[in-house]
Amino acid sequence: MDFSTTEEFDQAYKSVHDAFATGSTKNKSWRRQQLKRTWWMIEDNKDEICNALYIDLHRHRQESFLSDLAMAQADILHTLDKLDEWTKDEKPTRRDLINFMGGTVIRKEPKGVALIIGAWNFPILLLLQPMVAAIAAGCAVILKPSDMAPATQDLLMKIIPQFLDRDAIRCISAGPQEMKHILEQRYDHIFYTGSANVGKIVHAAAAKHLTPTTLELGGLAPAIVTASADIELSAKHIAATKFTNAGQICLNVNHVLVDPSVKDVLITSLIKHFTVFMGSKPQPEYYTHIINPRNFDRLDSLLKVTNGKIVYGGNRNRETRFFAPTIVTNLQPNDPLLTTELFGPILPILESNLDEAINLTNKTETPLAIYAFTRDETEKQRILSETQSGGVTFNDCTLHVIAKDAPFGGIGGSGHGYYHGPYGIREFTHLRTYTNALPAWMEGVMAARYPPYSDEKLTKLFPPVKPGFDREGNDVSVRSWKRWGIGLGLVVLSLGIVLGDQSQEFISGVLESVHQVF
């Protein structure tokens, strides 16, 4: 299928903006209908989706079903169940005069038109999951599937208009040249999943319009294996993660930093588990292949330039893009395998005690994940307190990503913004605060706010406050200020007599604040 033309994109761009302007996407019934139809779009096209993923990635149905289809459908059902809760307006504390008397509300409104740019490694999930959040927030959406997974792209171009609102949700196809025109346009939010290099291009384009972005990138996620780890189970979890999707996962283990005392045992166990996973055939049919020749050549060149030693795997076939799980040892910290996001089935292993592992991790761009294998709680706390990453899983890999209603996202070089559960909806939501004027009868109390200004009026509005700490930040006694607190309490009680029973929450809040200070 050819890419969308400039005219086709411009028409789609106008359509979604016009649809959002009508207010139709803000309707909860519209949101629910689109989410339900998305669920059925996946359900009714499971075979076609799995076939497309096999064409693009040589991925087995079981892996595709679990990683792309089941997760997307589960996310839709959970979002439908929680939609009212996650999108309802909020009321800030009523223990504040303006909030209490003005009825302040934090209104959750859709940002507007969102551009969602999907990735090729999970081309269904990583496009539809942010779309679900955008629809749930009430946005209109332009979807751009990855052109590097063409079979899946073409299928999405076919089924999305069959199932979803053709005015408010449009799917377009584009390559790098076409994306220049697409990114020149103004959106209300851009959600991008992919490489850091392209992420910088997207972010720069968004900045021209001050458009907020969510960037889900990647990084050099380490697996840190200490001497206290369960080595057999650690090896099994690391091998299974590296095997999945042939290592083409932004969250995958990039390299292993293992304590010297357990290095040999870990390698032996990794080889054992990889051998089991690969089965009896040298190129099992159920093993995913590299997405395209360019990425195959990139991985191939890394193996050719490394100074390390291949101790397992290394088998590869450029024609079929089969690239076996490959363990490389005897490395130096500056080896290309340890300074590049591999995004493939190569597993470099470097001897490092915990101090060295933490130091090496902190020298790279902040990774999207850290996987730490240890049974020592002190070591866990050191990793949490002395490193940064998008997330952490202890004694396994990627579990923090599927933790229900928990945020997933990067920091620094691994991206910014969050999604999954309520956090995804929050990305596409504008929190719009509104309040009302204080009652007219309070004008006398608030007269000091008006010109002409004077020191006397300033003192009335902001009486002197003595904090409970000195200039060095040390806590000090504030007994001399108790009389001020008592006086304020009497004023509040007097106000309560005027306001009646409805003032109870406000008064109790002020009195509690006074108690905390004095």
UniProtKB/TrEMBL annotation:
SUPFAM superfamilies (UniProt xref): ALDH-like (SSF53720)
Annotated ranges, domain Aldehyde dehydrogenase: 4-433
GO cellular component terms listed in the entry, alphabetical order: cytoplasm
Gene Ontology molecular-function annotations: aldehyde dehydrogenase (NAD+) activity
Domain of life from the UniProt record: Eukaryota
Keyword check for rRNA-binding: no
Protein name in UniProt: Aldehyde dehydrogenase
Protein's organism: Penicillium steckii
